Write the structure tokens for this entry.
Amino acid sequence: MDKVDKIFESFVGESIFKNKSILQSNYYPENILHREEQVGLVASILAPALRGERVSNLFIYGNTGTGKTLGVQFVRNKMLEKVKELGTDNLKFVYLNCKMKSLADTEYRILAELINEMGGKVPATGLPTKEVYSRFVDIIDSKKQVILIVLDEIDQAVQKISGDFIYSLTRLNSELKNAQISLIGISNNLTFMDNIDPRVKSSLAEEELVFPPYNALQLQDLLKTRADKAFKENILEEGVIAKCAAFAAREHGDARRALDLLRVAGELAERESKKKVTLEHIDEANRKIEKDKVISIVENAPRQFQLVLASIMAIDRRGKNPNGIFTGEVYDKYKAVCEKTKNEELTLRRLSDILAELDMLGIIYARVISKGRQGRTREIKPMLSPAIKEQVCEILQKSLGI
DNA sequence: CGAGATTCATGTGAAGTATACCTTTAGGCTTAA
DNA sequence: AAGCCTAAAGGTATACTTCACATGAATCTCGTA
């Protein structure tokens, strides 16, 4: 039996999943475990909107995977249901994720996206920002209504946008004749508010709410309820859930991570046509998730990023850099690579920024250090396990045509 | 020997440039009455 | 005369460059014990 047959065979046979979608990240559960208190608070803060009253601006903190988005969406759905039931038409609930990089990382794009969500239309570029702004106001103010705007991962946006934008949004109500708007900011970053204009701060966070991380026990509970629905009976080996929970608890109680882990582990087991999900599958899943993330970043990175990364990998592969690689070395290698691949070479200034961004992406480690008389530089190390390194190198070679 | 002063190799911020899109606007051409 | 198309004018975003100044610790210098 050849390989392909084998693969199909394992899928034709009994699946270990009952309903895999329950473990996927876009699944919205009926109720949200261990977040009753927070969800209740959100609901009570937003409830006046049902009567057409303006509600306080709300700010929600919490690490990734602590149920912030889920909680807000949950309340949103319930409210929209209620609105339908009441037959009124004066409540809009707009959700915008600021992290979708190409979608909303500038003031202009956020406005454009909000307008789209509201049913208006605006080109991706070209209009004066002012014009977009006034169109936005027109759309909102076209009738009497309460508008709740959810800005998810708002910290990502504010880094690039002046806080003025948020401020003017919060102040918008005085310009509106008919409508009322309220903002709901969601941030992963607990220290986000610290370096923000106090005016913005006080107007944005009329109400504050913290979503604490799940602890390992809560994660187990959560995984167990979902696993019961997602897997068939007796599929999970003893301790699998506990291990998933432990992994995720280490990652700041990230429930999304825990669910991904369990799902991928299940997929791996299925692919091997095993009847059980074992502890090793969890380890394997952990590695795979990490790998997939890195690879998709590298594949989709702009050419110049790939060139820089290729230079770093080339130096790293030659070895003997126990203390890390320095910016100067990378730049020399990078120039050579550019010449070989007939790419235009950038300035050292730009390279420096690219290195910083690669660091942000978590592909390399790059800290600024001072080497005394030898000046200041970044100390650079690739942050990839050997197996991934090879794949990354292959991708780079293919993509750059080396 | 130790406190300052020096120095190196980049880091970093601000401002400017080039390119790619986008709308508005005005003029010219077409078309229908 | 109304309608449609086109090109120029005027904006914005993005990726990059140029310029100028900032950094921070190893090393040097020099006064002093």
Q: What stands out?
A: Residues 123-128, 131, 326-328, 348-349, 352-353, 356, 368, 370-378 of chain A lie near DNA strand B (CB under 10 Å from a C1'). Residues 214-297 of chain A form a domain with the Helicase, Ruva Protein; domain 3 fold (CATH 1.10.8.60). The first strand of chain A starts at residue 58 and ends at 61.
